[in-house]
Amino acid sequence: MADTLSASEDGRNLVYHATRSKGWTKTETSLWIEDAHTSRATLKRFWQGKAIDRHTFQEICRVAGVNWEEVATPQPQTEAAHPPAMTLKPEPRHSPWIPSLDCTGTRWVGRTATLANLTDRLTHTTRVLSLVGITGIGKTSLAQQLLTDRDLQAAFPNPITISFNSESPSFDIVIHTLLGQQKYDAKSQSEQTAIHDRALIQALIAKLQSKPYLLVFDMLETCLTADEQGQHRFKEPIFEQFFSQILQAESIASRVIVTSQDQLPVLAEGRYQERIHQELLTGLTSSEAIALFQQWQIEAATPTEADCLQRIIAVYEGHPLALQVIAGEMSDAPFDGEILAYWSEYGHEVETVEAIKADPQLDARTDQPRLDRYTVRLKDLVKQRVEKTFQRLYEANSIAGLLLCKNAVARIPTERKAWLFQIRVFPSEAQEAAFELLQRRFLINAVQYKHRVRYQLHCLIRRVALDALDHITEIVESPGTHP
Ligand SMILES: Nc1ncnc2c1ncn2[C@@H]1O[C@H](COP(=O)(O)OP(=O)(O)OP(=O)(O)O)[C@@H](O)[C@H]1O
Ligand SMILES: [Mg+2]
Question: What torsion, rounded to 10 degrees, do the Cα atoms 70, 71, 76, 81 define?
Fold first, then answer.
């Protein structure tokens, strides 16, 4: 039996998500170290995947609530010799056949009143809930939180998530997911006649009546199109029929949660108002955003630091994705979580945005506010923020920039080795370093599927990276410019 153990990549991810789901901040991490009778230096080695004392390793996992055998790098000769671990496995957050939307949901903070209100609505009269707001504001994460809500799980124990984040999103995916391959083939063979659509809708509604499903339609804006007046309608009318039937049915066992950057068209001619609810998401409150920074281990120790953090939160109006990429830069070298060090380097950028926002002529220059209270400003600011972050990442490590860009092509989450395959021309240490840099800067999200961890980009980061793809590929991969 080896005296030491080291944590595998997947194992570290398990521990990472377990501690995130408990919402551990610096304080709890200190208690973790204490309870496991270890030191910060050993915990650091654990995170780095380096060998540490076997007993300490098991204690670290025990306190985190994770089975150490799932965390340790496999050691074939000892595997058979050991009885199963005594620690309990953490309960899976979802049924194994449902992929979690996004593991970063485990970092969730705030929106408590909204969650309680929406849960209450869904367990009562609301049949279709639409979560709307600008990109990165937290719609998918909120849907994820609702899926894990105990009351909703009890009332609607059959979760199904359908993402419309595909090259050519269409209603076919709804048919395919709910009715299976058979009906799907039947539809594609025939013309999309009205009769056929009606029969399909009936079959879908019957399915939703058969069991209490909690359906999530993620990124439904991809199935909408705007007319000259800026009103949205579905590209395929069958969507409207589907939703209208859900609203019109005398009773329905299931519920649908939609996330969309654009407002849904009027459904069922605006009748059944109590059965449909739109929740417009705005940024996090200041105290929620402070709590979010704490999750990333960034805490103000002095009033000056608190003021800097507040100003960052204020200019980005509590936008979680913007704050996430800032926290990623702040946590990484050379700042290592030092708020003032970050401020002295980049505080001027925040001041510039403050000045722009204070300009009284700004409102006249920007487009009219659309569905939400935001002008286009915040959306633009967030995009610029992500672009700057990307630029700085590329300057710090061009291979990491290339890694991000090349993997932005894929919409679906892929495994780490598939990510690294894209930069296989570089030495393996450089590949590893680039991947870890993306993780440290919170630019990639881990997604768990059937106990395997895959990685994906938020769609805004993906778009920014795709824009840079050609340019960066040319520079980084052209002969003579390799770092
Ligand atoms: N309340 C929250 N607590 C912690 N993190 C959050 C919260 N809300 C959002 N985030 C984080 O912000 C990022 C963006 O959120 P999310 O992907 O849910 O946005 P979105 O509104 O669905 O964006 P899009 O319209 O582009 O799909 C995610 O990484 C998520 O983890
Ligand atoms: Mg989303």
Answer: -60
